[in-house]
Design a protein that fits this description.
Layout: H1 4-23, H2 27-44, E1 52-54, H3 66-74, E2 78-83, E3 92-95, E4 102-104, E5 110-112, E6 123-126, E7 130-131, E8 137-138, H4 144-151, E9 157-161, E10 182-185, E11 188-189
Parallel strand pairs: 1-2, 1-6, 6-9, 9-10
Antiparallel strand pairs: 2-3, 4-5, 7-8, 10-11
């Protein structure tokens, strides 16, 4: 069994490779893949009416989830975004009602301001750097989502959203890593 230092080194190497793979996609490829992934999301993920869905504010060359956010809101679902409370603390999810209630947050992202209602999502759509067919997710290494999910009384469904080039044969895991229920890419559902 591999120790946590070996796993950490493997994850670090995979993060670098995942970023290189993702950044190698052209702007046009990312736009086309984001549109296809949006269509695949709605084809594959069936939500009860008036669901609460957490998404993310896309940064850099992450798969753009704006199409999903807009379609969910038009369908009457509530959308929330993660908010960072502090280092080593779980995230909270605040309602996203439009860009006018956003403030700058850490890591180059934005989040709803403190006046936005705190929501408990039934589905969390997570950004990621890498994934495998078993639902293992390679995040950015800060552990925010793992801590958040571990602290939730009612466990939500977890959906990764990524480009297909971010798939690896195997993502090493630690005991605290939470696997995803599904992963949606421009090619469809990956698990």
């Amino acid at each position: 069994m591999k120790n946590s230092l070996d796993i950490s080194a493997q994850k670090s190497r995979l993060r670098k490779e995942a970023m290189e793979r993702r950044s190698a996609l052209s702007k046009e490829q990312r736009q086309m893949a984001s549109a296809k992934a949006t269509d695949n999301f709605f084809r594959e993920i069936k939500l009860p009416q008036k669901s609460i869905v957490a998404l993310y504010w896309p940064i850099g060359d992450e798969l753009n989830c704006w199409g999903i956010i807009e379609r969910l809101q038009k369908a009457g679902h509530q959308v929330c975004l993660p908010c960072i409370k502090g280092k080593d603390q779980p995230l909270i999810f605040r309602e996203f009602t439009g860009e006018n209630n956003l403030i700058l947050a850490g890591f180059g992202t934005s989040e709803p301001d403190k006046n936005a209602k705190i929501l408990q999502p039934g589905l969390i759509v997570l950004p990621l750097l890498g994934f495998d067919k078993k639902g293992n997710r390679l995040g950015y290494g800060k552990g925010f989502y793992d801590r958040t999910i571990a602290a939730m009384a009612k466990k939500p469904e977890l959906c990764g959203l990524a480009f297909s080039v971010q798939e690896f044969e195997n993502i090493p895991t630690n005991a605290h890593d939470v696997p995803l229920t599904r992963i949606v890419t421009e090619n469809g559902l990956n698990n």
